[in-house]
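My current task is to audit a protein record that another person submitted. I need someone to confirm that the token line plausibly describes how this chain folds. Take the sequence as given and treat only the tokens as open to question. This is what I was given:
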Amino acid sequence: MSGQVTDRSRDPASRGRVQPPTKERFIGLEWLRFVLGLYIVIFHTLHNYPSISSWSHYVTDIGFFSTSSFFVLSGFLLAHVYLDHHQSLREPARSFWIKRFANLYPIHIGALLLAMLVSTAVGKLAITPEDAAASIRFVIYDVNNDLGQTDPEALRHYMSDPELAANLALNVTLLHAWNPLYLTFNPPSWSISALMGFYLVFPWAAPRLFRVRHVGRALALTNLLYLLPPLVVIALTDYGMPETGILHRNPLIRLPEFIAGILLCVLYTRWRRAGYRPGRGLCLAMALWVAGSVVVAVWLLGQGHAWYYLLHNGLLLPSQLMLILLMTRVPSPEDPRLQRLARRLGGASLPMFALHVPLYVIFTRVEQVLAGEPARCLGDFRGCLEAAGDSSLMMYPVFLLFTVLFCVMFQEQFVLRVREHLQRLLMGRLVPSARREA
């Protein structure tokens, strides 16, 4: 259970032999995973409703906080789960990599195929004028300046056949986060590519980070190193490309977030061994810091392009660390149904990151057809599409609920099954714990 450690040395059956304490289960972190996934859905979709455009950006401006927090959380949880009581990797690196790959790849490939299918279908149906430009070839160059407002056509690009083939190969091999020019096919899936890059260094990095003597200094140094690239870009560039794409998603540039998560687990583990837990006063101070940081960040984003780079790459890292620490203090509910719900929703977080864009397109286009003259679709399909209405903000909660339910089922009925087969194929045997790990 979350927040509890079982001391097996008190069990008469275990006397005479040393056994490590049972790993904690952080139900609060399951809820956090879910909320981060839901917020990234809102970040990419809420701005599409003109009726609330005057204030919705205040809600969605710092969507990157969600992705960064997820990277930090991944480092924390992997260190907590995969390091034994000697702070060594509890299984061979090859086994770890296979498990992590088998967890990510079904999500990525399923979302990729769905996104490509939806993009192609939307371009052919052309329900709205904007839909006519939809294509798997269409991309937008990454910049962080005013070019998108002054000359938006300069950012629009259709990939040539060689570009299409190269980017398809990058996606199939989970290397697409390394493309600094633009996002392809299913834009949010770059985070899955970055995660795979982090996982490659975990078996080497995590045990060594647990030997660090001064964790606070290591966290401060990690944060400083994370801030150096945006400072260089601010000093030397005009916020164009490819530097914007590099800062946004390059796995090496984003690696300090994952490293900080591992170091946070080091700190938490040492506190736990010393019998220390943050008191109410400290927890309240951290909660106020997190809330204040979010408010200040939203304001700073309106003060110039440089602030986006700094907030995106490092300034908010202390708040993300505090948020995760706070959520480790959330007690596990006694009702096993609530525990299971938290695990199911937490397990659906990564599918929510990967699937929400094509799901939003499907939902809104169906909504628009139904808001028009859907009866005409039986005899005059083109006329039915031309009579389509508009998306309604009233239906937005329905979309969010639809996305959550779909991603829960996608994780449990598709990802877990495919993951099990992948692990069996790559490891030559079925890993018994395959269905228990998120």
Summary: The first strand starts at residue 138 and ends at 140. Residues 1-20, 433-438 have pLDDT under 50 and may be disordered. Residues 29 and 108 are 23 Å apart (CA to CA).
